[in-house]
Every structure is written in C-alpha cells, then in structure tokens.
Amino acid sequence: MLRRLLGREPAQAGRLADGLELSRRGFLDRVAGLFGSVDITDHTWDELEERLIQSDVGVTTAMELVASLRGAARRAGVRRADELPPLLHALMVDALRARGAAEDDGERPPALEGPMVVLMVGVNGSGKTTSIAKLAELHRRAGDRVVLVAADTFRAAAVEQLQAWGARCEVPVVVGQHGADPGAVVFDALGSGAARGADIVIVDTAGRLHTQANLMAELAKIRSVAGRVVPGAPHETLLVLDATTGQNGLAQARAFAQAVAVSGIVLAKIDSSAKGGVAFAVTRELGLPIRYVGTGEGLTDLEPFDGEAFVTGLLGTQGG
Hints:
By secondary structure, the protein is of the alpha/beta class. The chain contains 14 helices and eight strands. The chain has helices spanning 2-6, 10-19, 21-31, 42-54, 59-76, 84-95, 128-141, 156-169, 182-191, 193-196, 213-229, 246-259, 278-286, 307-315; strands at residues 116-122, 146-150, 173-174, 200-204, 236-242, 264-268, 290-294, 302-304. An eight-stranded mixed β-sheet has the order 3-2-4-1-5-6-7-8, with helices on both faces. β7 and β8 (302-304) form a beta hairpin. It is elongated and about 65 Å long.
C-alpha cells in the first residue's frame, strides 16, 4: 500500500517541501554559512558537527555524517566548502535508511486474507488521533475502503474526537461501550461486517507512557486479539512521534519502541519544528523506518515518507 501511495500526483508531492519550510530555514541558518567559497579546514568539520547536533540530528548521527562527509570529500578531491552540499545530500539520504529494520516497506502482504490491520500507538499529545485521521484520508483518496476502530475506551473525548474525524473523512468508526475492554472492542470490530469489507482497518489506542505497565499489557492483549481474528495482524504497528519534542521525545520514544513491536514511525508536526534533523536521529537511534510525515494541520497534510524528497526539502538542494 505504501508503495502505491508514494505514486501520488505531483500537486501533492510539493506539500512535503512546504511542510519543511520552517525546518529548512532553521537548518540552513545553521549550516549554510559553512558552505561558502572558502577552503575546507578542520574548523569546517567541527562547526558542521556542532550545527547538525543543534538541528536535533543527534550526537552519534552527526559524528557519523561528518566522518562520512570527510571521507567522501577526500575521495572526490573536494577542497572547497561550496562543493560539499551535493555530497552531504547523498549521505543524508542514506542515513534515513533504517539500519537493522525489517526490509518490508509497509506494503499490504500479498496473500492477506481480510483487511490490513494497522495499530497506532504513541504517547499522550503526540498527534496520534489526528495522524490516524490523515492516514485514513490518504487511503480513502487512494481508493481503499477504510474502517477506524476506537480502542481508547476509557477516555470519552478520545472516542468523540475519532468519530468527528471519521465523519470528516467519510469513513466508519467502530466504537464500544465506555470503559469496555479494548481487546474486546478490537475483536468485535475486526469480526464485524464493516471490517470484513474493508481494505484497511486502523486501530486507535490509548495514549500511554512506556512506564505504564498496565497499559503496555493492554496493548499486548490488543495485538494478540487482532492476530486471532485476522491472521498476521497487526500488519503494521506505527509509533506516532511529535517532531517538535526533539531529543527529549526521542528518548521516550526509544523506550516505547522497545516495549512493543513497532514496525515504523509517523513523524507528526514536522511543519512546526525548526529542527527537522530529528528524522535522522529517529532512524539511526531507533532503527525504525519513517513511514509517514505530517506536514500541516489539514486533513490531507500527511505524506508517505520519501528520504530523497525530505533531504531536498530540508537542504533546498538536489543531490549530485
């Protein structure tokens, strides 16, 4: 499914660049001054490493990028700083390929019986419910039949919020009784006629912290129940991460990802962050691929992640 969604019309492709405007300005303010018509010195490398860290790339990733860039420049015989951007572009694209992650790309399994089930998880305030609505709209516009499941049963406002988004997306929302067991809601939803006719079922879960053992156990139960109803489900477990929280949010997300079988990241609110480098830290330090990126507040402001387009939008340059 993700590969097909990447084949979107050109008018939509430009939204990623627009959504990265704030990050691009912040990133370029930090690094552009290093890429003038001057000779490369040790100071160039030290400053670049520092400014990458300031852009939330992360210490380890910044050191790796600079070391790789130094090697690439040496092999290419590059001596002037204004020759570095194309080399940096290529290395940044490569850095966005998750190391150690599964080789799948979020596609629907070829022999799947029943709907593709996507479980959405995240900490409170990460933008999870809004991202669910955007993902539903993305699939609906691609021609998929979508069903949403409200498995956050203890917070009435969460159910009402998802129902409101469902109405805007014109997709059905399956809900249970207030306070009902979330696993039972998922069981009923996946076994219902609505789900059997769907191409994709997106399950909302309660926002939680990795330290909340009871909620983590609940999440494990939801996953088990889903697998009993639909073989292999959930086929994707997406962790929604707020890009504006930077390195602080990353530490929390790292522990969260270790607690559940996360298969990919939704990087929300990238349009509100002046430090788009967090995408590199996420990929490098969590070892997980970014599946989608939120580029604005509108219902259509979610894009399948494309590393090449992301780096181009961030640097404002094409690769060499």
